[in-house]
Amino acid sequence: MVVAQVDRDVCVRSSPTAAFFLVSRRGVDEATNHSWIALEHVRGGGLGGPFPEPDGLTARPHVWAQQAVCANRPKRPIQNSPPPTTGGDPSQERNDVVEVTTSSISSLARLPWGSKVATSSGENTGSATSAPTLQLYEFEACPFCRRVREAMTELDLSAEVYPCPKGSRRHREMVKKIGGKEQFPLLVDASTGVTMYESGDIVNYLFRQYGQGRSPSSGLLESTIFTGWVPTLLRAGRGMTLWNKAGVVPAEKLELFSYENNSYARIVREALCELELPYVLQNVGEGSSKMDALLRISGSEQVPYLIDLNTGFQSGDYKKILSYLFQQYSIGS
């Protein structure tokens, strides 16, 4: 498998599956069938193409990757509704074995990052009634957004998360107003007035500001190029595109207890992204200072645990959470 050599974040503009450009056609033959379909969707025009097959793809994949993703392309006409997700109708009953297996393998690919707390500053914690000062604009399938979320788990940081799926009706426009361009991830730290793009810069900033002198864990930044795309590929179609029946906006943000590399929490975060639901992320990796709070609220340390103050719904069962989200926050439900 040939892996592209990328010098900067490639999750830009309207390209939630930009990570697929990191993999040559030679390597994709080993992927699962549904992942191959998703890749063909990207190359066939699903993100603004079609993109021609370049000369010397395997010899210079990084050149093609950056040109294909970052080139100024003619904008397509605005559609009334976003395209369907490659992963199918996310509201329908799913094959539990496939869902859990692909998410679990994704977690294995990213070990040890995003699972344990490296240091806890005791700052920037909050709940839906007392919002944290960090705001993260991202989408679940982006490997560079994943890098930032992993760092937040290691630093035991809470954040307001604003999912920005392809076809976004709200949050992508907010990103352009805040930062001037549609690129992800985007971090806003209200406590310092800092606003920044570029995942590497964001990770370094978070460790400087909240890491109590620690540096990013060994391999956290470098590994994104090699294994950061694995969850995106294995979970093809999930957590990247706005569902065409999404549209109900809650008055209060939802609250999710999670940690980045938990396989069940990933499935819930994908749904929150597909529905474009903003939420307060309470990271509770191993050793988290917020684990006691979770235990008081739920009676266990199980994640994911979702709280919806708008309806009083609370659950630690990911299947119940999925069913609830798509029933409660879908148009016509």
From TrEMBL:
Gene Ontology CC terms: chloroplast
Positions of the UniProt region annotated as Disordered: 71-103
Domain of life: Eukaryota
GST N-terminal domain sequence ranges: 132-214, 252-333
Sequence intervals crossing the membrane: none
Family matches, as InterPro entries: Glutathione_S-Trfase, Glutathione_S-Trfase_N, Thioredoxin-like_sf
Stated name of the protein: GST N-terminal domain-containing protein
